[in-house]
Structures are given as C-alpha cells and as structure tokens.
Amino acid sequence: MLSVYGSGSWSRRVFWFFLPNYQVLFWYRIYRYLFLKGWRNTARLLFLITLYLTRAEISPESSIGPACFIGHACGIILSGKVGARCSLLAQSGIGGGLEEGEVGGGPGLPVVGDDVVFGVRSMALGPIRVGNRVRLGPAAFLNCDAPDDAMVVMLPSKIVHAKPRASASAAIAEGLPDSSFHDGELT
C-alpha cells in the first residue's frame, strides 16, 4: 500500500509537501537536528520562522518519534516526548502543567507512548505518562497517567435549562426559518 504523502504524481507530491501539516514536521526535524548538534540559536530562529509559517508550536527541546501525523497544524502545541506514529488533530496540546516533576519528557512535561491519537482540542499536561495506543477524544483533558489501550473522553455536556420552543413545529411546517433558534435565550 502506498503512503498518502508519497503516492501519485510529482504534482501531488509537491502539493503535499507545501501543506502546513507536512511543513511543520519537515522544519521540526531540521531545527531539532541543529539543536542537538549545538546550534541552539539557529534552531530557535528556525523554530520561530516555522511558528509564523504554520501556526504550530513544536519546541526544539521536544522529541518526536517517527511517522508522527499532524492533521491540522494551526494551533498545535507540543512540548515533551512523543512516541512513534502519534496523531495530533486540530488544536491539540502536549505540554507542561502546574505540577513539577520529571518523567522523561523534560521538567514538568509529559511522555506520550506509541500509536496515540489526540482528538480535536485534546490536551495532555504536566509530568505524566500516556501509555501506548491511548485515544483522547475531542476536548479531552488528561493530567494524570493513562495506561496502555485507554480511551480518555471529556465529561458529557449537559443542558441545564432551555427555553421551550412551542413555535418550532409550526415554523417547520410552514417552511419558514425558526427564529426562536437564533434568539440566544438559554438560561
């Protein structure tokens, strides 16, 4: 089976190369290499340029394993240690919390295992360990250790009180837009 980035014609490969989700990892690998070789100021300059180009913040101190996938680069924040084949969707975050400690990702930073998926706006914060094959659902917040094969979800939303919509069925029957939906009266 061909990979998504390498399949197809030359024009398709060029198209994939210039997408921000590919660019952020491409430039990260370069400035991470420079950072490890002692070219810290050059690495930080490339980090800033990449931040402005892609709107994704992956610090040079972070360690990312092979085959990482970033679905939407804008809003991604990554600080810590991430294993192989990690997937990060829109506005995910991996980084420091309020607690201090060291678990292997850096002072106060998490360590994420292999094959972990971060849903939209999900976060892993603080000196925690996220096991292998963990799934974080949309808007999930993780600030404690998660074992292998765990699924982390946010608390379900709950509507406390809503204004009754008696006119909704009449408006739908007439084919008119329901104006009570747009009045914004939720108490």
Give short descriptive properties of this protein.
single chain; 187 residues; alpha/beta; UDP N-Acetylglucosamine Acyltransferase, domain 1; five-stranded parallel sheet; 16% strand; globular
Please describe what this structure looks like.
This protein is 25% helix and 16% strand. It is built from 4 helices and 14 strands. It has helices at 10-17, 20-36, 40-54, 168-174; strands spanning 57-58, 63-64, 69-70, 77-78, 81-82, 87-88, 93-95, 111-112, 117-118, 123-125, 129-130, 135-136, 141-142, 151-152. The protein has a 5-stranded parallel β-sheet. α2 (20-36) runs antiparallel to α3 (40-54). The longest helix has 17 residues, at 20-36. The termini are far apart. The relative contact order is 0.09. The mean pLDDT is 85.
Which CATH class applies here?
Mainly Beta
How would a textbook summarize the main sheet?
Answer: 5 strands, parallel
Question: What is the number of helical segments per DSSP (H or I, 4+ residues)?
Answer: 4
* Oligomeric description of these chains: single chain
Unreliable segments of 5+ consecutive residues: none
- Biggest sheet, strands in spatial order? 1-4-7-10-13
Question: What general outline do the C-alpha atoms trace?
Answer: globular
List the domain count as a whole number. Answer: 1
Mean pLDDT, nearest integer? 85
- The secondary structure category is alpha/beta
N/C terminus separation = 53 Å
CATH fold topology: UDP N-Acetylglucosamine Acyltransferase, domain 1
* H/E element order: HHHEEEEEEEEEEEEEEH
Q: State the share of residues found in helices, binned by percent.
A: 25-40%
Tell me the Rg in angstroms.
Answer: 21 Å
